[in-house]
Design brief:
With 304 residues, the protein is an alpha+beta fold. The protein has three domains: 86 residues, Uridine Diphospho-n-acetylenolpyruvylglucosamine Reductase, domain 2, CATH 3.30.43.10; 125 residues, Uridine Diphospho-n-acetylenolpyruvylglucosamine Reductase, domain 3 (2-Layer Sandwich); 65 residues, UDP-N-acetylenolpyruvoylglucosamine reductase, C-terminal domain (Uridine Diphospho-n-acetylenolpyruvylglucosamine Reductase, domain 1), CATH 3.90.78. The strands form seven sheets. Strands 6-7-15-11-12 form a five-stranded antiparallel beta sheet. It has a four-stranded mixed beta sheet with strand order 1-2-5-3. Strand 13 and strand 14 form a beta hairpin. Helix 3 packs antiparallel against helix 5. It starts with a helix and ends in a 5-residue tail after the last strand. Bound molecules: flavin-adenine dinucleotide.
Length: 304
């Protein structure tokens, strides 16, 4: 691959925008992350397919970026390409109690839309700042529900650009993950919701919003929960009981309000967060013999 030829081949594709060396901090909720060698935005299905074929031909690794609310991107950035979906992937089509939603549609917008239409099932997702595609892949959940409950089908493409139509039986949902075949890139998600009155859905959504405000930190960039809950316990309880609330590495701090959150107090680096994650894991392991695993996904090139 020669850099110039790759960028030039991509720039010829209609519906695809290419940037070289684009800093990723502005695309992540924690506001950290170094540059992507190539930052690609696909606005159309045709553009996406053509783009993936070029990426494959040049043998460039590709990382999908949704709203970056569950990604810790290294300070060194990402070697290869980072791909974001825009344009037609930000649209939703509604049919009765069903929806066909583009992967780049914001979950927050989707929740508001279901409330307006009096469709129940997504209130749990109020306050989740992800995209529909990222939330499907993470099987995002809260307050006793998760994406799995509303998803009926998924349109995707393979990294080679081949279209996949996935039924529920092809989607292996688990706690905070959905295993999709062939490293699938999610393009659209079919959902079935429950017709109710707008007032009933709105009341449940507001109760969840209030609970979130009471229990979770706000005001500093974060990722939501950093660690997965181990079976039968809560990561936050273990971290708090280990006396780690307020622990700091550089600009990153374990929240004093909710111990499973790490906050960017200003100027934090990805390396600070990684260091803090390692300190927390070490202390919890030593005290409770529990190995915490991150829910947040680490991406990019890390120093040895
Ligand atoms: C304040 C706050 C509150 C949160 N609350 C919750 C919560 O209550 N429950 C919860 O589960 N999570 C929560 N999160 C975490 C996060 O919002 C969810 O995991 C969300 O679903 C991630 O979506 P995203 O678009 O930001 O994905 P990203 O962070 O961009 O990506 C996550 C993963 O999905 C992959 N991906 C993204 N888009 C696609 C695609 N189209 N096709 C294939 N792969 C893709 C990425 O490569 C990555 O591996 C919270 C985060 C914050 C900052």
């Amino acid at each position: 691959m020669t850099t110039d030829r790759f960028a030039r081949d991509l720039s010829r594709i209609a519906g695809v925008a290419v940037k070289v060396g684009e800093p990723l901090a502005r695309y992540t909720s924690f506001k950290v992350g170094g540059p992507a060698d190539y930052f690609l935005e696909a606005h159309t299905s045709l553009g996406l397919t053509a783009c993936l074929k070029v990426v494959e031909r040049h043998g460039v690794p590709v990382l999908l970026l949704g709203n970056g609310s569950n990604l810790l991107v290294s300070d060194l950035g990402v070697r290869g390409a980072v791909l974001r979906l825009r344009g037609e992937f930000r649209r939703a089509r509604w049919h009765g109690a069903g929806a066909d939603v583009g992967a780049a549609y914001a979950v927050s917008r989707l929740v508001r839309e279901t409330v307006r239409r009096g469709l129940g099932g997504l209130e749990f997702a109020e306050g989740i700042p992800g995209s529909v595609g990222g939330s499907l892949v993470m099987n995002a959940g809260a307050y006793g529900s998760e994406m799995e409950r509303v998803v009926t089908r998924v349109d995707a493409v393979t990294p080679a650009g081949e279209a996949l139509a996935l039924g529920r039986e092809d989607l292996q949902f688990a706690y905070r993950e959905a295993r999709l075949p062939a490293e699938a890139i999610v393009t659209r998600v079919g959902m079935a919701l429950t017709p109710e009155t707008a007032a009933a859905v709105d009341a449940r959504m507001r109760a969840i919003m209030a609970h979130r405000r009471e229990s979770q930190p706000s005001g500093h960039p974060n990722f939501g929960s950093v660690f997965r809950n181990p079976p039968g316990d809560h990561a936050g309880r273990l971290i708090e009981a280990s006396g780690l609330k307020g622990l700091r590495v550089g600009g990153a701090e374990v929240s004093r309000r909710h111990a499973n959150f790490i906050l960017n107090l200003g100027g934090a680096r990805a390396q600070d967060v990684r260091g803090l994650i390692e300190r927390v894991c070490g202390e919890v392991e030593e005290r409770f013999s529990v190995t915490l695993q991150t829910e947040v996904r680490l991406a990019g090139e890390w120093p040895q």
